[in-house]
Amino acid sequence: MDPVVIVIIVVAVVLLAVVLVLLLTRGRKAAKAKEAERLRERSAEQQLQVRESDADARSAQAEARRVKAEADRQAAEAEQQAAEAERRAAEAERLQAAAGEKESAASARRAEHEETLRRAAELDPRGGSGDGDQHGRPAHDQQDHDLHRDDHRGHDEQGRDARHGHDEHDQQQGHRSLGERLTGHGDQGRDDRHEHDEQQGQRSLGERLTRDDRSTGGAYAADPGDAQRPQHASEDDRPGPDAPRR
Question: In 18, 28, 173, 200, which residue has its Cα 20 to 30 A from 119's Cα atom?
Protein backbone atom coordinates (compact mmCIF):
# COMPACT_ATOMS: atom_id res chain seq x y z
CA MET A 1 0.00 0.00 0.00
CA ASP A 2 1.17 3.44 -0.76
CA PRO A 3 2.52 5.34 2.28
CA VAL A 4 0.68 8.48 1.25
CA VAL A 5 -2.63 6.68 1.46
CA ILE A 6 -1.71 5.40 4.84
CA VAL A 7 -0.91 8.90 6.06
CA ILE A 8 -4.18 10.23 4.68
CA ILE A 9 -6.12 7.51 6.46
CA VAL A 10 -4.34 8.19 9.74
CA VAL A 11 -4.96 11.91 9.46
CA ALA A 12 -8.64 11.29 8.70
CA VAL A 13 -8.98 8.99 11.69
CA VAL A 14 -7.34 11.55 13.93
CA LEU A 15 -9.64 14.29 12.65
CA LEU A 16 -12.68 12.11 13.23
CA ALA A 17 -11.47 11.37 16.72
CA VAL A 18 -10.97 15.03 17.40
CA VAL A 19 -14.42 15.83 16.03
CA LEU A 20 -15.97 13.12 18.14
CA VAL A 21 -14.16 14.36 21.20
CA LEU A 22 -15.32 17.91 20.53
CA LEU A 23 -18.90 16.75 19.99
CA LEU A 24 -18.87 14.70 23.14
CA THR A 25 -17.38 17.54 25.12
CA ARG A 26 -19.96 20.03 23.81
CA GLY A 27 -22.76 17.56 24.54
CA ARG A 28 -21.58 17.09 28.08
CA LYS A 29 -21.37 20.86 28.55
CA ALA A 30 -24.86 21.32 27.20
CA ALA A 31 -26.13 18.56 29.45
CA LYS A 32 -24.39 20.11 32.42
CA ALA A 33 -25.83 23.49 31.55
CA LYS A 34 -29.34 22.03 31.36
CA GLU A 35 -28.78 20.21 34.61
CA ALA A 36 -27.53 23.38 36.23
CA GLU A 37 -30.54 25.31 34.93
CA ARG A 38 -32.85 22.65 36.25
CA LEU A 39 -31.08 22.69 39.57
CA ARG A 40 -31.30 26.49 39.70
CA GLU A 41 -35.04 26.34 39.02
CA ARG A 42 -35.42 23.70 41.67
CA SER A 43 -33.36 25.79 44.05
CA ALA A 44 -35.64 28.77 43.41
CA GLU A 45 -38.66 26.64 44.11
CA GLN A 46 -37.05 25.28 47.24
CA GLN A 47 -36.11 28.78 48.34
CA LEU A 48 -39.73 29.86 47.90
CA GLN A 49 -40.85 26.85 49.88
CA VAL A 50 -38.30 27.64 52.56
CA ARG A 51 -39.62 31.19 52.82
CA GLU A 52 -43.16 29.92 53.03
CA SER A 53 -42.08 27.42 55.66
CA ASP A 54 -40.33 30.16 57.64
CA ALA A 55 -43.45 32.34 57.46
CA ASP A 56 -45.59 29.43 58.61
CA ALA A 57 -43.17 28.73 61.44
CA ARG A 58 -43.23 32.37 62.55
CA SER A 59 -47.02 32.40 62.38
CA ALA A 60 -47.17 29.18 64.37
CA GLN A 61 -44.81 30.62 66.98
CA ALA A 62 -46.87 33.82 67.22
CA GLU A 63 -50.05 31.78 67.59
CA ALA A 64 -48.37 29.63 70.22
CA ARG A 65 -47.27 32.73 72.13
CA ARG A 66 -50.77 34.21 71.84
CA VAL A 67 -52.38 31.01 73.07
CA LYS A 68 -49.87 30.79 75.91
CA ALA A 69 -50.54 34.41 76.89
CA GLU A 70 -54.29 33.77 76.80
CA ALA A 71 -53.83 30.67 78.92
CA ASP A 72 -51.69 32.62 81.40
CA ARG A 73 -54.29 35.41 81.50
CA GLN A 74 -57.09 32.94 82.09
CA ALA A 75 -55.03 31.25 84.80
CA ALA A 76 -54.40 34.63 86.46
CA GLU A 77 -58.11 35.47 86.21
CA ALA A 78 -58.96 32.08 87.67
CA GLU A 79 -56.58 32.72 90.56
CA GLN A 80 -58.03 36.20 91.04
CA GLN A 81 -61.56 34.81 90.95
CA ALA A 82 -60.58 32.13 93.43
CA ALA A 83 -59.06 34.77 95.71
CA GLU A 84 -62.19 36.92 95.28
CA ALA A 85 -64.38 33.92 96.07
CA GLU A 86 -62.35 33.23 99.20
CA ARG A 87 -62.58 36.89 100.21
CA ARG A 88 -66.35 36.89 99.65
CA ALA A 89 -66.68 33.68 101.62
CA ALA A 90 -64.71 35.22 104.47
CA GLU A 91 -66.83 38.38 104.25
CA ALA A 92 -70.01 36.27 104.29
CA GLU A 93 -68.77 34.40 107.36
CA ARG A 94 -67.91 37.70 109.05
CA LEU A 95 -71.33 39.17 108.23
CA GLN A 96 -73.01 35.99 109.41
CA ALA A 97 -71.07 36.15 112.68
CA ALA A 98 -71.98 39.83 113.08
CA ALA A 99 -75.61 39.01 112.35
CA GLY A 100 -75.48 36.28 114.98
CA GLU A 101 -74.02 38.71 117.50
CA LYS A 102 -76.69 41.31 116.69
CA GLU A 103 -79.39 38.66 116.95
CA SER A 104 -78.00 37.61 120.32
CA ALA A 105 -77.93 41.24 121.46
CA ALA A 106 -81.50 41.72 120.22
CA SER A 107 -82.59 38.57 122.05
CA ALA A 108 -80.89 39.80 125.22
CA ARG A 109 -82.57 43.20 124.92
CA ARG A 110 -85.90 41.56 124.22
CA ALA A 111 -85.48 39.35 127.28
CA GLU A 112 -84.48 42.39 129.35
CA HIS A 113 -87.52 44.27 128.06
CA GLU A 114 -89.81 41.36 128.87
CA GLU A 115 -88.24 41.11 132.34
CA THR A 116 -88.82 44.84 132.85
CA LEU A 117 -92.45 44.50 131.79
CA ARG A 118 -92.87 41.50 134.06
CA ARG A 119 -91.41 43.33 137.03
CA ALA A 120 -93.57 46.36 136.26
CA ALA A 121 -96.63 44.11 136.15
CA GLU A 122 -95.61 42.54 139.48
CA LEU A 123 -95.13 45.98 141.06
CA ASP A 124 -98.38 47.39 139.64
CA PRO A 125 -100.71 44.61 138.42
CA ARG A 126 -103.49 47.13 137.76
CA GLY A 127 -101.40 49.06 135.26
CA GLY A 128 -101.56 46.38 132.60
CA SER A 129 -99.08 45.85 129.78
CA GLY A 130 -100.75 48.11 127.23
CA ASP A 131 -100.65 51.43 129.19
CA GLY A 132 -96.87 51.83 129.27
CA ASP A 133 -95.01 53.93 126.79
CA GLN A 134 -92.53 52.76 124.22
CA HIS A 135 -89.68 52.76 126.78
CA GLY A 136 -91.41 50.27 129.06
CA ARG A 137 -92.65 52.81 131.68
CA PRO A 138 -95.55 51.74 133.91
CA ALA A 139 -98.92 53.32 133.19
CA HIS A 140 -98.91 55.67 136.21
CA ASP A 141 -95.38 56.92 135.40
CA GLN A 142 -96.44 57.60 131.82
CA GLN A 143 -99.53 59.45 133.08
CA ASP A 144 -97.37 61.58 135.42
CA HIS A 145 -95.08 62.29 132.53
CA ASP A 146 -98.03 63.33 130.33
CA LEU A 147 -99.42 65.51 133.15
CA HIS A 148 -96.12 67.33 133.64
CA ARG A 149 -95.67 67.74 129.90
CA ASP A 150 -99.16 69.21 129.42
CA ASP A 151 -98.73 71.47 132.47
CA HIS A 152 -95.54 72.86 131.01
CA ARG A 153 -97.14 73.21 127.58
CA GLY A 154 -100.14 75.12 128.97
CA HIS A 155 -97.98 77.44 131.05
CA ASP A 156 -95.63 78.04 128.13
CA GLU A 157 -98.56 79.05 125.90
CA GLN A 158 -99.99 81.35 128.59
CA GLY A 159 -96.55 82.73 129.41
CA ARG A 160 -95.98 83.83 125.82
CA ASP A 161 -99.04 86.11 126.07
CA ALA A 162 -98.12 87.65 129.46
CA ARG A 163 -94.32 87.43 129.61
CA HIS A 164 -93.82 91.16 128.96
CA GLY A 165 -95.97 92.21 131.97
CA HIS A 166 -94.03 90.47 134.77
CA ASP A 167 -90.86 91.26 136.61
CA GLU A 168 -88.16 88.90 137.89
CA HIS A 169 -89.94 88.30 141.21
CA ASP A 170 -93.11 87.19 139.45
CA GLN A 171 -91.07 84.80 137.29
CA GLN A 172 -89.42 83.16 140.31
CA GLN A 173 -92.71 83.02 142.21
CA GLY A 174 -94.43 81.41 139.20
CA HIS A 175 -91.79 78.69 138.96
CA ARG A 176 -92.01 77.97 142.68
CA SER A 177 -95.80 77.77 142.47
CA LEU A 178 -95.55 75.45 139.48
CA GLY A 179 -93.08 73.16 141.28
CA GLU A 180 -95.27 73.10 144.40
CA ARG A 181 -98.35 72.26 142.34
CA LEU A 182 -96.61 69.48 140.44
CA THR A 183 -95.11 68.07 143.65
CA GLY A 184 -98.22 68.41 145.80
CA HIS A 185 -100.63 66.79 143.41
CA GLY A 186 -98.34 64.02 142.09
CA ASP A 187 -99.01 61.40 144.77
CA GLN A 188 -102.73 62.05 145.17
CA GLY A 189 -103.21 62.18 141.39
CA ARG A 190 -101.89 58.67 140.79
CA ASP A 191 -104.70 56.86 142.61
CA ASP A 192 -107.40 59.24 141.36
CA ARG A 193 -106.13 59.06 137.80
CA HIS A 194 -106.00 55.26 137.95
CA GLU A 195 -109.67 55.05 138.99
CA HIS A 196 -110.62 57.57 136.34
CA ASP A 197 -108.62 55.61 133.68
CA GLU A 198 -110.51 52.42 134.52
CA GLN A 199 -113.81 54.26 133.99
CA GLN A 200 -112.63 55.81 130.70
CA GLY A 201 -111.26 52.60 129.16
CA GLN A 202 -107.55 52.96 130.13
CA ARG A 203 -107.08 56.23 128.23
CA SER A 204 -104.01 58.22 129.17
CA LEU A 205 -104.34 61.30 131.34
CA GLY A 206 -102.28 63.29 128.87
CA GLU A 207 -104.85 62.73 126.11
CA ARG A 208 -107.73 63.74 128.42
CA LEU A 209 -105.95 66.86 129.56
CA THR A 210 -105.21 67.85 125.97
CA ARG A 211 -108.80 67.24 124.86
CA ASP A 212 -110.28 69.04 127.89
CA ASP A 213 -107.83 71.88 127.46
CA ARG A 214 -108.96 72.37 123.87
CA SER A 215 -112.67 72.21 124.79
CA THR A 216 -112.47 74.47 127.88
CA GLY A 217 -109.91 76.96 126.58
CA GLY A 218 -107.05 76.07 128.92
CA ALA A 219 -108.85 74.61 131.98
CA TYR A 220 -107.83 71.27 133.43
CA ALA A 221 -110.02 68.20 133.24
CA ALA A 222 -112.43 67.96 136.14
CA ASP A 223 -111.59 64.58 137.61
CA PRO A 224 -111.18 63.56 141.29
CA GLY A 225 -107.39 63.90 141.10
CA ASP A 226 -107.54 67.43 139.69
CA ALA A 227 -110.00 68.94 142.14
CA GLN A 228 -107.33 71.07 143.77
CA ARG A 229 -105.72 72.27 140.54
CA PRO A 230 -106.47 75.85 139.41
CA GLN A 231 -108.58 76.17 136.31
CA HIS A 232 -106.32 78.89 134.89
CA ALA A 233 -102.79 79.81 135.64
CA SER A 234 -102.59 82.79 137.94
CA GLU A 235 -100.70 85.87 136.99
CA ASP A 236 -97.92 84.88 139.40
CA ASP A 237 -97.74 81.36 137.99
CA ARG A 238 -97.05 82.45 134.45
CA PRO A 239 -93.40 82.09 133.43
CA GLY A 240 -91.69 85.26 132.33
CA PRO A 241 -89.64 85.91 129.22
CA ASP A 242 -86.40 84.78 130.89
CA ALA A 243 -87.81 81.65 132.51
CA PRO A 244 -86.14 78.42 131.40
CA ARG A 245 -88.37 75.96 129.63
CA ARG A 246 -88.53 72.37 130.75
Answer: 200
